[in-house]
Design a protein that fits this description.
mainly alpha; 5 helices
C-alpha cells in the first residue's frame, strides 16, 4: 500500500493556498455580517460592539493572510537560483514578518474569546463567564510571552 508523502515545503504551500481560499469565503461572510448589522442598526438596535468586533477580527485575519502570502512569495520567488531555497526560507526566523503574524494571531484570539465571553455574559451565565475570563487572561499572558520569545530570537536563527 503506497502512502502519499507530503514534504514540509509542500505542506506550507498547500496550507497557504487553503488559507487564501478560506479567506475568500470569510470575505463573503464578513460582507453579509455587515449587511445584517446595518439592518439591525436601521431597526434601532445597538450594533456598535458587534460592528467594532467584526471589523477588528477582519483586520487581524487580513494581516495574518497577508503575512502568509508574503512569506510564500518570498520563499518561492527570491533566490530561485538556490536549490531548495524555500526549505531554508521557512526554517529561518524572519523577525519582522514572524512577529507581525504572531501578534495578529494572538490579538485575533483575544478578540474572539472576548466576543464569546461577551455573548455568554449577555446570556447571564456566570459560571461560563468566569471560565472565559480565565481563558482570556491565559490568552493574553501566553500570547504576550510567545511574541516576546519570538522577538528575543535573532534574525536568521533556525526555527526548528
Amino acid at each position: 500500500m503506497a502512502y502519499l508523502s507530503v514534504t514540509n515545503i509542500q505542506a506550507e504551500l498547500i496550507g497557504t493556498f487553503i488559507e487564501i481560499l478560506i479567506y475568500g469565503i470569510y470575505l463573503v461572510v464578513f460582507c453579509k455580517c455587515l449587511q445584517v448589522l446595518q439592518v439591525k442598526y436601521t431597526e434601532g438596535r445597538p450594533t456598535s460592539f458587534m460592528a467594532c468586533t467584526a471589523l477588528a477580527i477582519f483586520v487581524l485575519v487580513s494581516i495574518n493572510a497577508i503575512m502568509d502570502i508574503l512569506l510564500a512569495i518570498n520563499a518561492f520567488t527570491t533566490h530561485a537560483d538556490v536549490p531548495q531555497y524555500a526549505i531554508t526560507y521557512y526554517t529561518i526566523i524572519r523577525r519582522d514578518l514572524d512577529i507581525i503574524k504572531s501578534t495578529a494571531y494572538v490579538a485575533m484570539t483575544i478578540v474572539s474569546d472576548g466576543l464569546i465571553a461577551r455573548v455568554v455574559v449577555w446570556g447571564r451565565n456566570v459560571i461560563f463567564a468566569g471560565f472565559l475570563a480565565l481563558l482570556i487572561a491565559a490568552d493574553i499572558s501566553l500570547g504576550a510571552h510567545a511574541v516576546y520569545l519570538l522577538a528575543a530570537t535573532r534574525p536568521g536563527d533556525d526555527a526548528l
